[in-house]
Structures are given as C-alpha cells and as structure tokens.
Write a structure and sequence with these properties.
- The chain is built from 3 helices and 5 strands, in the order βααββββα.
- It is α+β, with helices and mostly antiparallel strands.
- The protein has a single domain, classed as YaeB-like fold (2-Layer Sandwich), CATH 3.30.2310.
- It is globular.
- The protein starts with 5 loop residues before the first strand and ends with a helix.
Length: 111
C-alpha cells in the first residue's frame, strides 16, 4: 500500500509542469525516475540516498540516470499526498536557488 501517493502539481490553467517535463524525457529516464517516485510512495518516510529534505517543507527525489546525469523532482507533502512541484536535470553539484524558489512558490499556492 502506498504510504504517500504522488500527485502532480497543476497550474491554474490545468497544465502539470512535472508531468510535461517527464514526457519530454526518453523512456529509460522516465522509467528510472518513475521507479524512484514509486519507492518514495511506498517507503515514506525515506532518507538518503533517494530522498533528501531541502528544508521549509520541501523534499527532493534524487534520480541517477545513465551517463552520469542527475534528475531531481522537488515535492512537498500536503494532505497525506506527495505533490510533485518541479522537475529538472541537475547541471551543478549544488541545486540552483531558482529551482528551489520555483518549487517553494508552487507549494505556497496549494498550502
């Protein structure tokens, strides 16, 4: 049984930015990221290396992709659900502040 079912954050227009981002990735990348999200859904609370707190109610799912690429999905927990707020490919060791700021802005809209 899922302990923390995942939902996509939706804009007022109904668009779901994380779902759209995932659909642009190739099948293998989507499969790996999907497995990581599923592991968080079924094993919550879960820590490193798969999941890490970013503070202020934000968490990240940490996916290692082929070729040393790194994907992150930032989420929050709201009403017993994992809300997928923002997804991106990491290009530097440290997560860029703008990525966290966008997720925090989206979290404020739903909480």
């Amino acid at each position: 049984m899922k302990r923390l079912p995942a939902n996509f954050y939706a804009l007022g227009s109904g668009r779901e930015p994380v779902r759209e981002w995932l659909k642009k990735l190739d099948v293998e990348d989507r499969k790996l990221i999907g497995e990581d999200i599923k592991d968080v859904e079924f094993s919550w609370p879960i820590g490193m290396p798969l999941c890490r707190s970013l503070g202020a109610g934000l968490w990240e799912v940490r996916s290692q992709l082929a070729g040393g690429r790194i994907a992150r999905i930032i989420f929050c927990v709201h009403q017993g659900r994992m809300v997928l707020l923002h997804g991106f490919m990491k290009k530097t060791q440290k997560t860029q502040p703008r990525e966290i700021e966008l997720a925090a802005k989206r979290m404020k809209e739903i909480t």
